[in-house]
Amino acid sequence: MNLPDESAIKNIIGHEFPGGDYAIAHWENFLLTECTGAEALPDGLAHPVSLFHVPILGAGTSIGEMFELGQATSEFSIGIESYDWQIYQSLREELNYQISGSVVSAERREHEDGRIFDRIAFQFDLAHQGQAVARTTIVWHYNRGVR
User: 114 and which of 50, 54, 131, 147 could share a cystine (Cβ 3.0–4.6 Å)?
Assistant: First the structure.
């Protein structure tokens, strides 16, 4: 089994993404809402499903970079543990959100059956004009194989 060095995984804790701005376009909100089977929200409200991608893109990163940080062996080696969304204000179309993100935890774990994985948590914060709008925490498992 070819495991990344455990200390290298722990060393990504505190890694900060470049950060940046993101505005949810009306067309983007329309398509995302349509995909969920929901009706369009009134008054320029954006569907919360945008929290799957807006924080990542707005923080100046990508899913590919997140895979690389955790030394994923392939796109098939990632398992999703959770997406936690804390929404403090309604998301809106066409507002410019300031977004920051970082790695908040990284640890090696082993299942009872010998499967080894690295559990890595990414946190992203969205703000508008200095006011907190949302926080997303993404926890992925980087599967490493069986001992």
Answer: 147
